[in-house]
Structure formats: C-alpha cells, structure tokens
Design brief:
The chain is α/β, with parallel strands linked by helices. It has 14 helices and 13 strands. The chain folds into two domains: 154 residues, Rossmann fold; 179 residues, Rossmann fold. Helix 6 packs antiparallel against helix 7, helix 7 runs parallel beside helix 13 and helix 13 runs antiparallel to helix 14.
Length: 370
C-alpha cells in the first residue's frame, strides 16, 4: 500500500511540475550556430526597430528587454507603443553600438542571456567572442521582413525560436506570406508597358531633391514587387542615392511616393505618425510637392502622389506599407486591398495594442488635370 501511495505521489509531482525549458538552436544570418540551454528571457536589441518584431512575438515585449538602442526606434512608433506599454521608457538605452555612448562593457553589465546583433553592426568578431566568453549568446539577425527572403520573416522566425515563441512567429509568417503571394500572383504576368515608372523618395522634404531608393536591398524592393518600375533602381546600385531633378523630369514618373515622419517637420518635409492629423499629413505632402519642377510630373498632375511613414516601411509590420504601395501603383488590380484593415488586424491579432495615427496620405490631382 505504501509503495502504491509513493508511486501515485511521484506521478502527480511529475505531472504538476513546470515543464523543463528545452535547449533551442538556430543558424543566424551570419551562418553561425546559436544554441541556448533554454529560451531567452532577457535580451538586448542593438537595433531599436527590432522592438516592433519583438512586440509581434510577445504581448509584453518590454519585459523581455534588458536594454536596447532606443535611437534606432522610429520616434512615431515609439510614441504609439508608449500608450499601451508605459514601462517601455524604463528599459536601459545602450546607445549606438560601437560609439562612445555604448560600450561592450555596458552591454555585458546588463547580464542579458541573448544579444540580437543587427547585421549592420556585425563588424567585430572580437566583440562577439567577448560577449560569449561572458556567457552571453549573440545572434546576428535582421528582424525587418524582406521580400528577398523566403520566408520574408526569416529573422523574426529565428528570434521566435530563441524566445520559445515559435507558434506566434509562424502565425505571423503565414499572415505576411499570404498577402505577399496575393500581390505577386496579380502582377507576375504584367508586361513592362503596364509597370508604371515610380519615384520612391526617402525622407522627402523641401530642402533638396531627391534621395531615391535604388537597386540595393531595402524598401525600394517594394516597387518591383508591387508591379512598378523604380526610376532610381535604374541608375543607383546601392539601397538609395541622389537623383537630379532633370533626370526625374526626363523619366516622368507616373507614381510618386515619399517617406517621412514627425522627424521631418523641422525640415518642411513629409509628416505622418502617431500624433499627426489627416489635415497635417495632407498639408505636409502638398508642401513637399510644391518644390520646383514637381508640378510638371504626371504623378502630381494626375493625383498619384503619396506619402508614407518611413518607420512603417522599415518595421516588422512593413506588409502594411507594401499593400499601400501596391494599391497606389495598381489601383485597378488592388481595389480590394485596404492597408488600414491590415494594420487593424495586426493590432488585434499580433501587437499588444493597435497602432493609432496617420501613417500614410495622398494628394489630389492638380486642378487643371481634373
């Protein structure tokens, strides 16, 4: 009888005990195998924009942060997240990795179990060895989805494994892939003549013209994906570079898209974001379009000029920006796509709270073109 009682007690104890935290392992963007004895729960983000991806994986992302590079987080999105995550401002700011404001010792002193190193900062093998010698795992991961990758959310998926949030990562990957596949299917057979010329200008302002997206990996990839032809990609091999007004006028883009945010207000640039009104956003776009020569562009004359949050385009939820761009380039093909509906669904299903504000805007056609 005593043996039976002890056996039952042991079975109950085993059943009620918390599950062991199993070892997790990935191969990161640098081809390094990263293995943790248990999912990470105290991490450092060297690129603050990675916080948006972290928020897709956990409803309380700030509790997972040992520290982050806050300056690299889009200010408009940071303000939006503060509303639902008031403790976010308590997370230590490590500053810019490699700069005087953020030493290797500072990151080690935070005692994280994982440092997520953006590929942009993957320049020092010695620094990685020093962190690993201190018992800190380092994973080189790009957390912003890229339409050049398969899956597009490869970095986020790997982070999901390291955090023990695989199911959430897989759900978001499926969400993004479904929407990207729809866009690809509808434009794949478009002849070149049906792919409008697009000027995609980063950080649009009155001060100069024009820092355009090029052929390098980045947000300029969205134009080709959505069935457009980037006039910048034809002459700029890098992610972005300058275009002259003369070149732009010669190309006569049929669609104009500028990026910006509240950070552009002081430069008379495109202003969109969490605390911007429709009227303010529209006025800022009109200001950008008032630059010398822009009134001659077909895109401006015909009401196909638009403004988009730069932070949205480089974030973990850039599928919203991609859908907006697709609808602007091919309104006939994508009349059933509403990026606001997608943003709302992401807020409801994946983020701690919906993102409010004005993240894009459009200008009407010129009076003489109506």
């Amino acid at each position: 009888m005593i043996r039976i009682f002890m056996s039952v007690a042991l079975m109950l104890a085993a059943f009620c005990a918390p599950a062991a935290r199993a070892e997790v392992s990935i191969v990161d963007d640098a081809g390094r195998t990263v293995t943790l004895t248990a999912p990470a729960s105290h991490i450092v983000l060297t690129d603050g924009m990675g916080f948006v991806s972290l928020a897709l994986l956990d409803p309380h992302p700030e509790t997972l942060l040992a520290g982050w590079n806050r300056a690299r987080m889009d200010a408009d999105m940071l303000q939006a997240f503060r509303t639902s995550l008031p403790d976010l401002d308590q997370v230590p700011d490590i500053g810019e990795p490699g700069a005087s404001g953020a030493s290797l010792e500072q990151m080690i002193a935070l005692s994280p179990d994982l440092v997520v190193l953006d590929p942009f900062y993957n320049q020092s093998a010695a620094a990685i060895r020093a962190m690993e010698s201190a018992g800190i795992a380092v994973a080189v991961l790009a957390l912003t989805p890229s339409v050049r990758d398969d899956p597009p959310t490869a970095g986020l998926d790997r982070l999901g494994v390291l955090l023990g949030r695989q199911e959430r990562a897989q759900a978001y990957t499926a969400f993004v892939r479904e929407r990207l596949d729809l866009i690809r299917r509808r434009v794949i057979n478009l002849p070149e003549a049906k792919r409008p010329a697009v000027l995609f200008e980063a950080h649009a302002s009155q001060e100069s013209c024009c820092m355009a997206t090029g052929a390098g990996r980045g947000i300029g990839d969205f134009i080709g994906l959505a069935g457009g032809t980037s006039i910048g990609a034809e002459v700029i091999p890098a992610m972005a570079g300058p275009l002259s007004l003369e070149y732009i006028l010669g190309k006569a883009p049929q669609v104009y898209i500028g990026t910006g945010g509240e950070y552009m207000a002081a430069r008379g640039g495109l202003v969109v974001g969490s605390s911007v009104t429709d009227v303010q956003a529209a006025a800022s776009l009109q200001s950008v379009l008032s630059r010398n020569g822009f009134a001659e562009l077909p895109a401006v004359r015909e009401g196909r000029a638009h403004g988009l949050s730069h932070g949205l385009a480089i974030s973990g939820i850039n599928i919203v920006a991609i859908e907006a761009i697709a609808a602007w380039i091919h309104p006939d093909l994508f009349s059933d796509i509403d990026p606001q509906v997608t943003l709302d669904e992401i807020g409801r299903r994946f983020l701690p709270a919906p993102l409010t504000g004005i993240w894009w805007t459009s200008a009407p056609a010129a009076a003489d073109a109506r």
